[in-house]
Amino acid sequence: MLKGIDPRVTPDLMDVLMRMGHGDELAVVDSNYPAHALPTRSNRVVELPGLDVVQGLGLILGLMPLDGFTDYGALWMERDGAGSNPDPVHRAALEVIAAALPEGAQARSLERQAFYAHAPGCFAVVRCTENRPFGCFILRMGVVF
């Protein structure tokens, strides 16, 4: 047992986060996302049962810094036909993300198919038990100062 680490952080999640470096990306997705069908660079899928995507993002961002050196620190999947107009799941998650973004960094949206094309370049996928559709995000690892 370790002190000071949220007990919801699974060994698999800790391992993935510890293996990531600056610029690596992590997909944090809902239960609809085909996590095992779309391989990532590490071929790792971490399950966070019992946590919705907002809780999962909060857990991860308590440990992982977001990138402030590129044009985005996080990406989110647009609902089909909605463009960059966020759904309630996006608004709730973007509040958590905004609190973790370094000064000048931003979160951007991606059209759903563009998100699916981008996600295989991620280091790994964390799948939450979020049941709201389009509740999918990509976090870009920053640096610790």
Automatic annotation (TrEMBL):
<dbReference type="InterPro" id="IPR050443">
    <property type="entry name" value="RbsD/FucU_mutarotase"/>
</dbReference>
<dbReference type="InterPro" id="IPR007721">
    <property type="entry name" value="RbsD_FucU"/>
</dbReference>
<keyword id="KW-0413">Isomerase</keyword>
<dbReference type="Pfam" id="PF05025">
    <property type="entry name" value="RbsD_FucU"/>
</dbReference>
<protein>
    <submittedName>
        <fullName>RbsD/FucU domain-containing protein</fullName>
    </submittedName>
</protein>
<dbReference type="InterPro" id="IPR023750">
    <property type="entry name" value="RbsD-like_sf"/>
</dbReference>
